[in-house]
Automatic annotation (TrEMBL):
Gene3D superfamilies: P-loop containing nucleotide triphosphate hydrolases. It comes from Meyerozyma guilliermondii (strain ATCC 6260 / CBS 566 / DSM 6381 / JCM 1539 / NBRC 10279 / NRRL Y-324) (Yeast). It comes from the Eukaryota. The keyword Nucleotide-binding applies. GO terms for molecular function: GTP binding; GTPase activity. The keyword Nucleotide-binding applies. This is GTP-binding protein YPT52. Signal peptide: none annotated.
Length: 209
């Protein structure tokens, strides 16, 4: 008889400029849907979804806070990334200024978020490659610089519209979190603990959702 499935729960927050597709990424992950006319988030939205890690026989449940990107809501963001275990900083690959805004969010997380938070820098709208403004090599160089500062960060690209890469993002985040440590006796996950997962390694491609 196979061992019973093990379970861990973590808080994840999405940050980024308005219209980069944060909500679309989340809804593709949670509901496997895409709405081209989705309205901007007001304040923040809360969703949950789980991923399975069969290699360690575990299910990771994400409590997801999708924050509004408009400047007038920026002061509320610390309410949502406080005590978060992971953050997706999302930018639009066709909008270079959105990449700068994502970097600004990472600077803020470095100063105020829990030590050891897992950060994924997400380039959305990969289906619009012919309109790309953000150089992928520049993104890689930036992430390597952050790692040199001891930040637990990696980068992925996805298309919320097609679904490509979305599941892989959340699966990779789950693999980077201290799942085993949480299951084996911690009363609740600690964002300050390092997972020791190799973030440079890309998993094999899987179908979305």
């Amino acid at each position: 008889m196979p061992p019973s499935q093990r379970f861990a729960q973590f808080k994840l927050v999405l940050l980024g400029e308005s219209a980069v597709g944060k909500s679309s990424v989340v809804h593709r992950f949670v509901k496997n849907t895409f709405d081209n006319m989705r309205e901007s988030t007001i304040g923040a939205a809360f969703l949950t979804q789980s991923v399975t890690l069969p290699e360690i026989n575990a299910t990771v449940k994400f409590e997801i806070w999708d924050t509004a990107g408009q400047e007038r809501y920026k002061s509320l963001a610390p309410m949502y990334y406080r005590n978060a275990h992971a953050a997706l900083c999302v930018y639009d690959i066709t909008n270079s200024s959105s990449f700068q805004k994502a970097q600004n969010w990472i600077k803020e997380l470095k100063k105020q978020a829990p030590e050891g938070i897992v950060i994924c820098l997400v380039g959305n709208k990969a289906d619009l490659e012919d309109e790309r403004q953000v150089d992928a090599n520049a993104v890689t160089a930036y992430v390597e610089e952050l790692r040199g500062e001891g930040i637990q960060v990696f980068t992925e690209e996805c298309s919320a519209k097609s679904g490509e890469g979305v599941l892989e993002i959340f699966t990779n985040v789950a693999k980077a979190l201290p799942v085993e440590e949480t299951i084996n006796g911690a009363s609740k996950p600690s964002a300050g603990r390092q997972s020791g997962v190799e973030l440079n390694r890309r998993p094999q491609q899987q179908g979305c959702c």
